[in-house]
Amino acid sequence: MALSMQDTLTLNNGVKMPCEGFGLFSMTDEDIFISSLEAAVDAGYRLFDTAAQYGNEHLLGDFLKDSGLERSEYFITSKVQNRDQGYEKTLKAFDTSLKALQLDYLDLYLVHWPLKDPFFETWKAMEHLYSEGFVRAIGVSNFESHHLDRLLSRANFVPAVEQLETHPHFSNHVMRDYLKSLGMVHQAWGPLGRGADLDDPVICDIAEKHGKSPAQIILRWHRQHGVAIIPKSQTLSRIRDNADIYDFMLTPVEMKKIDLQNKGERFGQAPDAVYVKD
Ligand SMILES: NC(=O)c1ccc[n+]([C@@H]2O[C@H](COP(=O)([O-])OP(=O)(O)OC[C@H]3O[C@@H](n4cnc5c(N)ncnc54)[C@H](OP(=O)(O)O)[C@@H]3O)[C@@H](O)[C@H]2O)c1
């Protein structure tokens, strides 16, 4: 399977989204942010994944303004945080994000977590932003299948993307199949298990055979499953390594071996706990 850093997935509305992007969670130190983003652009990343909750949309906005990149060259994702959910509040939160990012439009806007209430009002605002052309695609994050089913019972637009915790020890393969059946793109957050899956002996063994790092093996596994990825790193050599996964292939047996490492162990919050609590 030939894959390249510049590969895109076509979303359910025809918009093309890079298969691999750069995650920006917890990156709030300005100097580290700039050096990491410079390395990421050099390595070929063009999708940048931020969120109101990460507190760095303004840093990304400043970086993009000075980057010399044309607006059409990069793809920006942000997310509405829980405290801003609801119809009017989501519209306002989007406007705040757009201003911080110093952009006229976003490429992808996600509902960060499912909340039981408000639920439909938030999605109605997302649909409004999409219909008015302020965002090229809308989606969700951390929705289990029953949250999606509830959303779809009243949605006018099927979410284009779902961003979900996904890594070898939490493969989320049932959701992967469900999203595929709905024509939605599955984008993995925490694709490296936030570092925790890198010591897995099966993955380390496969890495040694290919002369690659465990992180590269994991990212390649996601891509061969058709899952989009947004690894985060603020270490320059790792940023380059995470983009250098396109010159080898895992065999079907190696893919299966990694599949079998699933332990159903998430490190993030359980979506249902957030759904009823917030
Ligand atoms: N939608 C959501 O609810 C949600 C939740 C969490 C995250 N996200 C998004 O998903 C992105 C990625 O997830 P994540 O940041 O949680 O976790 P991740 O990408 O799985 O892991 C990041 C961690 O792995 C380390 N790392 C990265 N590349 C490595 C390599 N080649 N070798 C060894 N260690 C490596 C990083 O360390 P260094 O930085 O020190 O190199 C960092 O500690 C986030 O940045 C964010 O954009 C979304």
UniProtKB/TrEMBL annotation:
Substrate binds at residue 112. Residues 34-259 form the NADP-dependent oxidoreductase domain. InterPro entries: AKR, Aldo/ket_reductase_CS, NAD(P)_OxRdtase_dom_sf, NADP_OxRdtase_dom. The active site is at residue 54. One of its GO terms (molecular function) is oxidoreductase activity, acting on the CH-OH group of donors, NAD or NADP as acceptor. The record marks 79 as: Lowers pKa of active site Tyr. Keywords: NADP, Oxidoreductase. It comes from the Bacteria. Belongs to the aldo/keto reductase family. This is Aldo/keto reductase.
